[in-house]
């Protein structure tokens, strides 16, 4: 028994050592609590369910479709190469665009491996300005949503109200909103992320989610009037009038610039769609009628995110329907869509030797080759069903008829690009020019011990699983207010992202050494400061 305990302890120490060598911050975003210091990649406790998601391939790979955990449904992709045709041995047909053995040889794919080295990162890492110890939650939030931005909301809201009332008649009791009221308005809506109430109007109710401590700052009637007229851009511009996001685009541009000016990400970053679905607690408790009333999102949000801290460096919003340049209708179900998104998200990191991790929908040889010319290195998970497999050898994309051993891998190279096929309860394929195929990594699990793998596989799993953990926590602090208009949904989601980024900067500042607020306490403090309450300390 003692020997088993010593073995488990040694595995844990080895796992944490390797984890630290990948330069992932252990708990920049995390809460105080038992799970805040756990390694999201390695299983470090007997009841842990946070094993690397790459190892989540089901035991019955060919008999059952993939079953995804609700926390990261889009990242656990596996396949056996069947989508292109017959699946049996390496002679089976591969996915569209893949190369036969002779074609692969002509294109330069070979099994002879060579070492790959990524040049040093050409950028500094971390916050760009030093915040004082006395900096408040509002100070960090206003790095992204400054007073001039709030003043613009005031002006546009008043302009819209005036025009609306000129057309439909004046509204009794209405008076122009002030900057002080606009901050309070933001505070009320943001409070739904702290208290998890479905309707912001619950604040003034007598029910469970009522909050008299903040309800006295503004009447419900006044709040509803501001909510009715609230606008970022009151009127459609004369040019680019078919742009579906014109009511929110100036704010998104300002927010994006603020993200870039306040923080520089680490060398390793990930492109993905963050969790923005409905709150799982609501889904399990609401009635079928309430579920039917919920409309599906009409937009798609992609982000470029620092894998060392969770800071979201850039966002890209597209409408799922629309004729404008921000509409996805013209690119629907085409590989060009995700390639376009990836190029937009990475346009500011060319020439810096950054390493980006991608999911199956983005990973492709063509895109990675273009990024390589811009000194952007890539490591992505491949899927024969979701990825563009053009130019890749069929022999690496279909399953061999010979049973594979756990941890077994095959690698082929073309120049500095490696195509990896690795087995762990299922076949997983990776495309990478960011890690040398000659170097081995390890996946360390408490129950299974060490599972050998190429270094690219270990790096991908470690970094992406940290983002999965971040998303698990991040999704708890969405603004729960659910407007019907798409531009308002995008606005409040963007505000949620800004608050989480503000909290990351707070935890990396000297202010955190003075008062170590959790994410929930930080959110409550921000609400009270926006409402200008005298006592701004969070309730326990």
Automatic annotation (TrEMBL):
Database matches in InterPro entries: PGBD (IPR029526), PGBD5 (IPR042423)
Biased composition, class Basic residues, residue ranges: 66-75
UniProt feature, compositional bias: Polar residues: 38-47
GO annotations of cellular component type: nucleus
Positions of the UniProt region annotated as Disordered: 26-108
Gly residues: compositionally biased ranges: 82-95
Biased composition (Acidic residues): 28-37
GO molecular function: transposase activity
Domain PiggyBac transposable element-derived protein intervals: 137-503
Source species, domain of life: Eukaryota
GO biological process: non-replicative DNA transposition
The protein's name in its UniProt record: PiggyBac transposable element derived 5
Organism: Nothobranchius furzeri
Lineage, top ranks: Eukaryota, Metazoa, Chordata, Craniata, Vertebrata
Gene it is expressed from: PGBD5
């Amino acid at each position: 028994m003692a020997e088993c305990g010593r073995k488990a302890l040694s595995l844990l120490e080895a796992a944490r050592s390797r984890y630290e060598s990948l330069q992932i911050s252990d708990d920049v975003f995390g809460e105080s609590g038992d799970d805040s210091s756990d390694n999201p990649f390695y299983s470090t406790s007997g009841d842990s369910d946070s094993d690397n998601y790459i190892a989540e391939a089901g035991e019955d790979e060919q008999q059952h479709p993939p079953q995804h955990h609700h926390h990261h449904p889009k990242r656990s992709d596996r396949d056996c190469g069947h989508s292109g045709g017959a699946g049996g041995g390496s002679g089976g047909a591969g996915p569209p665009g893949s190369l036969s053995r002779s074609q692969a040889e002509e294109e330069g794919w070979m099994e002879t491996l060579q070492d790959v080295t990524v040049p040093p990162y050409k950028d500094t890492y971390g916050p760009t300005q030093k915040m004082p110890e006395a900096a408040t939650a509002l100070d960090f939030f206003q790095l992204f949503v400054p007073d001039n931005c709030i003043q613009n909301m005031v002006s546009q809201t008043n302009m819209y109200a005036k025009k609306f009332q000129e057309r439909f008649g004046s509204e009794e009791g209405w008076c122009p909103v002030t900057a002080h009221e606009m901050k309070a308005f933001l505070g009320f809506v943001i409070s739904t992320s702290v208290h998890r109430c479905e309707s912001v109007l619950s604040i003034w109710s007598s029910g469970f989610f009522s909050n008299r401590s903040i309800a006295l700052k503004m009447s419900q009637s006044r709040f509803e009037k501001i909510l009715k007229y609230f606008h970022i851009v009151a009127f459609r511009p004369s040019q680019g009038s078919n742009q579906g996001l014109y009511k929110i685009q100036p704010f998104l541009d300002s927010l994006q610039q603020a993200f870039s000016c306040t923080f520089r990400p680490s060398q390793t970053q990930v492109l993905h769609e963050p969790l923005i679905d409905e709150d799982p607690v609501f889904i399990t408790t609401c009635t079928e009628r309430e579920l039917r009333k919920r409309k599906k999102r009409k937009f798609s949000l992609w982000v470029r995110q620092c894998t060392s801290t969770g800071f979201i460096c850039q966002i890209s919003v597209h409408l799922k329907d629309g004729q404008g340049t921000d509409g996805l209708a013209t690119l629907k179900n085409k590989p060009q869509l995700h390639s376009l998104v990836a190029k937009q998200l990475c346009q500011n990191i060319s020439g810096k030797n950054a390493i980006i991790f991608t999911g199956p929908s983005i990973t492709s040889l063509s895109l990675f080759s273009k990024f390589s010319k811009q000194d952007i290195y890539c490591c992505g998970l491949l899927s024969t069903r979701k990825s563009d497999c053009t130019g890749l050898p069929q022999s690496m994309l279909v399953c061999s008829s010979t049973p594979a051993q756990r941890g077994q891998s095959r690698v082929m190279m073309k120049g500095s690009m490696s195509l990896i096929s690795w087995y762990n309860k299922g076949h997983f394929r990776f495309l990478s020019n960011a890690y040398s195929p000659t170097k081995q990594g390890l996946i360390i699990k408490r129950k299974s011990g060490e599972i050998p793998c190429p270094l690219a596989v270990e790096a991908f799993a470690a970094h992406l699983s940290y983002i999965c953990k971040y998303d698990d926590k991040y999704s708890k602090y969405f603004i729960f207010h659910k407007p019907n208009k798409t531009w308002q949904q995008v606005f409040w989601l963007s505000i949620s992202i800004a608050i989480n980024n503000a909290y990351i900067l707070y935890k990396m500042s000297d202010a955190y050494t003075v008062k170590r607020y959790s994410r929930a306490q930080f959110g409550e403090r921000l609400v009270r400061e926006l409402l200008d309450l005298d006592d701004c300390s969070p309730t326990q």
